[in-house]
Amino acid sequence: MSVNVLYSTSARATGGREGRTATLDGALDLKLARPKELGGTGAQGVNPEQLFAAGYSACFLSAMQFVASQGGTAKVPADATVTATVGIGPRSEGGFGLEIALAVSLPGVERAAAEALVEKAHQVCPYSNATRGNIDVKLSVA
Length: 142
Fold this sequence. Notes:
By secondary structure, the protein is of the alpha+beta class. It is 30% helix and 26% strand. It has a three-stranded antiparallel sheet with strand order 1-2-3, with no helix packed on it. A three-stranded mixed sheet has the order 4-5-6. Belongs to the OsmC/Ohr family.
């Protein structure tokens, strides 16, 4: 599989889950903190799972907008939301793994039309394509 890259970005992390992460262009610079559930102190800061959830939710909403712009599906209302929940834990095969749930709200869109739009977006979203076959992603329409 090849990708015709239209945009790329780079970020650098130091100190692992108790350090910092920043994009090389300076647009993002964040303190990292390990959550209590993973043995951390609960100090102020973000963690990789939060960053993944933020990125996936924004990307999936954009994928729905893209699909809708191509015609043949419901329009995406301005107040549409995608909530991504990312869980981390040990895998039975060893190491750690992620679980993801995407909860989509499309106010004013009929359920069947909303579900069709979500399914089509799931086929084109870069995060969905990256996780497919590796991470269980549960989709729901509110």
